[in-house]
């Protein structure tokens, strides 16, 4: 149990957020086997711990298997997670694959290695899930990751696309879930510190972490410092998409839009405060000069 009352409150808060995300997106069902990917960072450690707490309380029965991929980065403390998993009594699988050497060989010095590394890792995770009979794969991405990805795609990729709370894997065989979708990174960091999880540093590969992502992170941190709640507001917006007020013909058929005497749900009043009376309630005289 967490030591202090503050930590207990934080745990309750995070559990509530995870429970809501799981319910809202129907992430876990009775009989599921969930492979929880644990890198050793604060996010995945928190995810695993809280999912285990939920497992004890949930009305549905599901199995959790923690998985760590030892990518053979120099200095990777391979003993830390197995010892931690054993101590916690969680079912686990350690997978060893030297993706580090492959990435170093294929990517020229000085270039970011994360894309290839992530692709290799994804393939190994899918294979492991298949081997273990897991139908769900849980990842430790949180609300801030999802918002940062939105801006990455928006500013560097020309796409209005974020990171979904749930998706089908590339091979169509599994569902990937992100139960921390409603959790703020700061809360997770505080919780992981308070719980004294054995954190493995994420810079062992020597790669400069994705520079564009770092820029977005700095931008959001700056915004949040100056206007608290901005990340949360952007995340809320991700759940309130209005295709008729974007410009994608595949989501909303603008070509077919014509006057049919029907006014759209949002009309052109999207930015008006809800308490404003309707236009029709101001019978203002209007004069046309010509
Ligand atoms: S930081 Fe290193 S381990 Fe992480 S994705 Fe990039 S290359 Fe892979």
Key attributes of the depicted protein:
42% helix, 290 residues, 9 helices, six-stranded mixed β-sheet, Rossmann fold, 6 strands, binds iron/sulfur cluster, alpha/beta
Provide a descriptive summary of the structure in words:
The protein is of the alpha/beta class. The protein has one domain: Rossmann fold (3-Layer(aba) Sandwich), CATH 3.40.50. 42% of the residues lie in helices and 9% in strands. It contains 9 helices and 6 strands; from the N terminus they run αβαβαβααβαββααα. A 6-stranded mixed beta sheet has the order 3-2-1-4-6-5, sandwiched between helices. α1 crosses α2, α1 crosses α7 and α2 packs across α7. It is globular, with a radius of gyration of 23 Å. It starts with a helix and ends in a 52-residue tail after the last helix. Bound molecules: iron/sulfur cluster.
């Amino acid at each position: 149990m967490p030591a202090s009352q503050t930590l207990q409150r934080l745990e309750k808060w995070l559990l509530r957020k995870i429970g809501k995300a799981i319910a809202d997106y129907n992430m876990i069902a009775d009989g599921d086997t969930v492979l929880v990917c644990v890198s050793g960072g604060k996010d995945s450690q928190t995810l695993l711990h809280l999912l285990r707490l939920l497992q004890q309380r949930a009305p549905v029965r599901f199995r959790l298997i923690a998985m760590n991929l030892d990518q053979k980065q120099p200095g990777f403390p391979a003993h830390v997670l197995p010892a931690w998993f054993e101590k916690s009594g969680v079912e686990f699988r350690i997978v060893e694959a030297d993706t580090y050497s492959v990435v170093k060989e294929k990517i020229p010095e000085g270039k970011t290695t994360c894309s290839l590394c992530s692709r290799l890792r994804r393939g190994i995770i899918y294979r492991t899930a298949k081997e273990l009979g897991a139908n769900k794969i849980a990842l430790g991405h949180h609300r801030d990751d999802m918002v940062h990805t939105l801006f990455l795609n928006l500013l560097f990729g020309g796409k209005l696309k974020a990171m979904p709370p749930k998706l089908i894997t590339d091979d169509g065989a599994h569902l990937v879930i992100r139960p921390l979708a409603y959790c703020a990174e700061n809360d997770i960091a505080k919780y992981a510190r308070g719980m004294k999880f054995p954190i493995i540093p994420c810079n062992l590969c020597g790669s400069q972490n994705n520079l564009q992502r770092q820029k977005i992170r700095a931008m959001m941190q700056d915004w949040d410092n100056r206007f608290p709640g901005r990340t949360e507001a952007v995340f809320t917006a991700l759940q309130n998409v209005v295709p008729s007020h974007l410009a994608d013909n595949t989501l909303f058929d603008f070509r077919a839009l014509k006057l049919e005497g029907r006014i759209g749900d949002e009309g052109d009043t999207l930015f008006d405060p809800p308490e404003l009376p309707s236009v029709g309630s101001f019978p203002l005289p209007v004069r046309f000069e010509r």
